[in-house]
Amino acid sequence: MAARLVRIFPACSRVQLGSMPGARFLSQTPSPGAAGSPAGCVLSPADRNDSHGHVEVSCPFFSPQNRDFHGFHKEPQVDVWNMKVAFFFGISVALVIGGTFVHYLPDHGMRQWARQEAERLIKEREAKGITVLDCNYYDPSKIILPPAGDEE
């Protein structure tokens, strides 16, 4: 869909959000204590730009002690433990219990029952020597029709 929009509105593909490439817009107002807000992050001096012109952002959560920050807690041990618990319950338990639940759902539309009943009737008719399929669903000799002269 985005490719269609670019074809319809070619000017949309040339829009740049900032005049400086690699600029990041951070709030300079102090945060009221929201956890993980970008206001706590500080931009490093301009001389620490990388080869692509990106500025390095240093946050207090990305310290040498907490190198692998997962976003669950500020403390490294609690962060790793919370990440492991979240992935265990989010992936393992959801897939195992969800898959078991879907597997043991009742037969929707009674398809399995209908197939078993058809197989039982075929075996029964073959044992009796009757044709499996007949052009008449009901036995014509057992059908009682009204006399032809009565029309009311």
UniProtKB/TrEMBL annotation:
<keyword id="KW-0472">Membrane</keyword>
<keyword id="KW-0249">Electron transport</keyword>
<keyword id="KW-0809">Transit peptide</keyword>
<keyword id="KW-0813">Transport</keyword>
<comment type="function">
    <text>Accessory subunit of the mitochondrial membrane respiratory chain NADH dehydrogenase (Complex I), that is believed not to be involved in catalysis. Complex I functions in the transfer of electrons from NADH to the respiratory chain. The immediate electron acceptor for the enzyme is believed to be ubiquinone.</text>
</comment>
<comment type="subunit">
    <text>Complex I is composed of 45 different subunits. Interacts with BCAP31.</text>
</comment>
<protein>
    <recommendedName>
        <fullName>NADH dehydrogenase [ubiquinone] 1 beta subcomplex subunit 11, mitochondrial</fullName>
    </recommendedName>
</protein>
<keyword id="KW-0496">Mitochondrion</keyword>
<comment type="similarity">
    <text>Belongs to the complex I NDUFB11 subunit family.</text>
</comment>
<keyword id="KW-0999">Mitochondrion inner membrane</keyword>
<keyword id="KW-0812">Transmembrane</keyword>
<keyword id="KW-1133">Transmembrane helix</keyword>
<dbReference type="InterPro" id="IPR019329">
    <property type="entry name" value="NADH_UbQ_OxRdtase_ESSS_su"/>
</dbReference>
<dbReference type="Pfam" id="PF10183">
    <property type="entry name" value="ESSS"/>
</dbReference>
<feature type="transmembrane region" description="Helical">
    <location>
        <begin position="85"/>
        <end position="105"/>
    </location>
</feature>
<keyword id="KW-0679">Respiratory chain</keyword>
